[in-house]
Amino acid sequence: MQTETSKNWSQFNKDIANDHYYYLRSCIRQNFFPGSEVAFLDILRNKLGKTIYDDASHTTCAGIGYHCDIVPFETIQALAARHFSLMTEKGLKHAVVSCVTSFGIYSEILDTWNHFPESLEKTRNALRKSTGREFELPENVVHCSDIVYKFRKEIKDQAKHTLTNTKTGKPLKIVDHIGCHYAKIFPERGVGGAEFPKVLTGMITAWGGETVDYPERRHCCGFGFRHYFVKNNRSYSLSNSKKKFESMEPFQPDAIVTNCPGCNLFLDRWQYTLEQIERKTYGQQGQGIPVLTYEELAGLVLGYDPWKLGLQFHQVEVEPFLDKMGIAYKKGDKYKNLDGKIIGERPMVNELNIV
Amino acid sequence: MQHIETLIKEKLNSDIRFVEGLNACMNCGICTAICPAAEFYDYDPRTMLTIVQSGNLQKIRELLESDTIWYCGQCMSCKTRCPRHNCPGLVISVLRKISQETGAFTQSRMGRQQYLLRKGLGNALLNIGYSLHPSFIKPADHPEQGPVWQWIFENASEIYKTVGANLDEEGPGVLRKIDKEAMTEFRAIFEETGCLELFRLIDQYSSIKALELGITNEANQPDMDQYLHFIENEQETSY
Lengths: 355, 239
Description:
The complex is a heterodimer of chains A (about 350) and B (about 240). Chain A has about 350 residues and is an alpha/beta fold. Chain A is about 45% helix and about 10% strand. Chain A has 2 domains: about 120 residues, Up-down Bundle (Glutathione S-transferase Yfyf (Class Pi), Chain A, domain 2), CATH 1.20.1050.140; about 180 residues, Rossmann fold (3-Layer(aba) Sandwich), CATH 3.40.50. In chain A, β7, α14 and β8 form a beta-alpha-beta unit. In chain A, α6 crosses α7. With about 240 residues, chain B is mostly helical. In chain B, α1 packs across α6, α1 packs across α8 and α10 runs antiparallel to α14. Chain B is about 60% helix and about 0% strand. Chain B is globular and about 55 Å long. The interface between A and B is large, with 95 and 88 residues.
């Protein structure tokens, strides 16, 4: 019998292009989780057989500057237009965005151009005057997590590991955290909308894991843009994340997975900060809860080496999660360079396993 | 006084984000219920929207000079929930822009922080075409980043290579150096679309504030390094 729920679900299906993508990188992801961007391109090209153009000429979208209010709306419109122009030059029409802030920015700009055609003309003029460029509107703009969600079954078909606790045989319990600007501004542009976002839970369940519902599931991580960039305001960011940790703690998740570079950073680093300030941890057996990007999760499922994926960039140790998945790794390799030598003075592990 | 309030009205009505962000607020308060900033600050988006909707320019001007408009974290959770399709977070963006264009931001502690952002984030954008670079995130300024980041910061060139990044090098890839041609276009866009003018206004009004606060050098000119230090450490009760 067709249920009311499935009827409603159809409203939240999203058109995700099948191939021939143009990649737009993220400021935060490439600084803090660089292996995730490398893995995403590798999975697309070498596991899924897709083409994606990695352009050296694109810049930041300046979305962080926009939400910190020092960069005007007109500027980000012209920067987005320049990226569409680069894409037009390559004959591509499907933009794939690594950052959730950027994804929100592109969505806001396209919506504005749709509602106010004069602003599109104004942007075309500004871009022409400043760079001599012209551009065509993209046919499809999606977030990278949309692509991994779309091909989650193809990834499962090539899986070397599943999201199962190999010692107990039970599914691993994974909290999904979706960046606010993925679907809260424009629900119709997110898989499942803002109310039932499925982009990460779809991956988790397809790969054998169990999702965790908890009261503050949809609460912001607390980035707050100016509230993190201004040192004096950081307690705002910390307080928001703490609220989430306290809410998820009773469910004892094995990991958190996020689709937003900033959220991944803060949910990782604020656990360390809270351990330092309050001697409080939220994971199992007094440990922190590992916080993974969806690219890292896909990479682990596909059998990528954890240190090639960049899991050594995390402050909260990921080894307990790797052990549960039954992934073999050499602990000593975590701090080695390409020549196999230990890099610098390795960070000390404290007794709570938050490095 | 009258002139500034007329200017505020003109700026509000000419910003398409204001047209998009405020349809007709019925004061239900769902935005405040969902707002993370309302939870941790003395902030109420419902009241803010009521004031703006009232059109009372004197009260709007007071808002522009207050800490209130700077509390929003721009998560935009309010947009999802508003039954009238308003977006208080978007209205905040417009108010913040006008506050900077009129100099009102220097009248509040949270507003004055815009000078920190313009110098730090603004210069980063203009210099490298990114918002961030590993070398900017100094462990002394970011204790929350922890010992792993300290290790990455001190050994960046080696560590980024292990995951296939292209730190500060030519060509595509993670953290590549953005080439001269792209940077020229990037900066030209900033000039053409008014971002550099906004930077100039933030600098200018901040200098006036430094002078007003007596933060000056031996030549009796605004000492902007000292002013940066002042706003970086300014507490709620210190001014």
